[in-house]
Write a structure and sequence with these properties.
Elements lengths: L4 H12 L11 E5 L8 H8 L30 H8 L18 E3 L10 H6 L13 H11 L7 H8 L2 E5 L4 H5 L9 H22 L3 E3 L10 H6 L19
Parallel strand pairs: 1-2, 1-3, 3-4
């Protein structure tokens, strides 16, 4: 329980920020990211590529709210679901599902997605760590551009439509950092700068496409994630590895 408190607190503060925006402010939401916001795109990709079953296709994923597998990497709702509820919008459909209208928004996020393109990992001999189903943020941006003509045509139409649209970019870069093995940690500073540059470029591109309100959650403290606290369970024999105030791995 001690280790989950920082994560729950971060989630609470993030959701609290929703209350600062009028509930009638948006008519659509467009989400980009990874498993924190994926509502089914990975499942669509896995079926197309005839890959092995995706864990979120089975319980316990979805059991506490939807009472069935919901293609979300959560036992309940995701942060993006709470945004949709707050603004009176339907839960975002995965874009790759190509199911119905996306006038009220679309989800482009894919579990395991990275900010950096696959070419970067090839150039740095990190391909063995990359899931073949993974996508990059630039791929998600391209999907958005493909969808855009069905939403608006002229510059004025797009400006008016996107003035009442919320864009959520992230969480996204967590896997980029996880893919770097410990032997390559010295490159982390320049690596982080490149990730930030990529995300900033995507945000600018969205603004150029007409987006006006963009939320960028950023990367949660990796050492506070329940999965990391479970995998690297050092507390019993190395308490110095934990921050005494937060309980997170330093």
């Amino acid at each position: 329980m001690k280790h989950t408190i920082p994560f729950i607190l971060s989630l609470f503060l993030f959701l609290l920020s929703i209350q600062l925006i009028p509930s009638h402010a948006f008519d659509s939401i467009f989400s980009f990211g990874d498993s924190y916001t994926d509502t089914g795109n990975l499942n669509v990709l896995a079926k197309k590529l005839k890959s092995s079953p995706v864990p979120s296709d089975n319980l316990p994923y979805g059991q506490t709210f939807f009472h069935r597998p919901s293609h979300r990497f959560s036992d309940g709702r995701l942060i993006v679901d709470f945004f949709a509820e707050e603004f009176g919008l339907p839960y975002l459909k995965p874009y790759l599902g190509k199911n119905g209208s996306f006038r009220q928004g679309a989800n482009f996020a894919v579990e395991g997605a990275t900010a950096l393109d696959p070419t970067f990992f090839k150039e740095h001999n990190l391909t063995s760590y990359v899931d073949p189903l993974s996508t990059s943020l630039s791929s998600q941006l391209q999907w958005f551009k493909e969808l855009k003509p069905s939403l608006c045509q002229t510059t004025k139409e797009c400006r008016d439509y996107f003035s009442r649209s919320l864009f959520i970019v992230g969480h996204i870069e967590g896997r980029d950092y996880v893919l770097v093995p410990s032997s390559k940690l010295p490159m982390m500073v320049s690596y982080a700068a490149k990730i930030i540059q990529i995300i900033a470029g995507i945000i600018k591109e969205l603004l150029d496409q007409g987006a006006q309100t963009v939320v960028v959650p950023g990367n949660m403290p990796i050492g506070c994630l329940p999965t990391k606290l479970d995998v690297f369970d050092l507390y019993a024999y190395d308490k110095s590895s934990y921050d005494p105030k937060t309980g997170c791995i330093e």
